User: What shape does this take?
Amino acid sequence: MKFSTLFPPHRKDAVEAALLDAFGTTAIDNMTTLAGGLSSAHTYQLTVDGQVYVLKLSPPNLSATNLSLAADANIAPALHYRDTVTGVSISDYIENQPIRAVFTPDKLISEIAAIVKAIHLIPSGVDGAPLFETVDSLIGQFKQSRILSGPVFDECFTNYAILKSCVVLTDSDRVFSHNDLNPNNILCDGKRIWVIDWDAAHLNDRYIDLANLANFFVHTEEQEHLFLSTYFDGDVDEYKKARFFTMRQVCRIVYAMLMFQLAAQHKPANYKHDQKMEGIDLQLFFVLMGKGEISLANYDGQLMYGKALLNTAVDQMRSVGWASSLAQFA
Assistant: This one.
């Protein structure tokens, strides 16, 4: 099999079986490795008989229904092969277009709200860890790593604990969720949106997906109103706005913890983590990233992004909006 050296040796047989099942051949015209996100999966772009596909090697025996459910709902790209035991899948390749160039600002907000709603309407029994249990675990791992500490972290985790004691997660809000709706997993073919990377999908609180996506795409009160109104068919009350606002901060904490994990793994030897938190925000981070002065692919970018996310969460927790949101849960 051509290009076989790109696959982990212990996965080659499973890949050959997948190619034979999907295409009747193991002949690959061309193949490249695709950059991965936080997933542990190996992902490849390959061409077979002139058609381009994505082959993904997820951890073996990973819950395999997620991708099939999403593809059947026409939310994930069409699925040509999926093995529940080996973790191999083959899907259509989407030639991604800049999403903000395809849709007007208002249309983009409506489109992403509609895609989240479609995800949450998928019938599924794929269960997963409860929301707060997952967040608690990430915070616990962060504290054990001792990468950073200080009053900003203490304030953040105290406010999170208060939120956890106030809010009640209801079964009516427990829906099939993607759980990692960041821009890397949102593709546009020039006409519509597709969602990829379903490894983390399971039943979860609906506000996780709403908040995750909003943290990347929703930046004004007007956009927030359009986003929530589209998702809830206009039925938006103060309680829903409070759940949405507080969950945006929880999602920032989650992504901050994940960034700090990556930074800890990539820290140069004999290097002490910079404990400074003051003056580091998302605006500064994205300015530096836009100039090419920092990157999420390396230690400095991962550490700074984590700090910016956590600072943003704490700033919002100090706002009137946080206090008024907690009052909705009393």
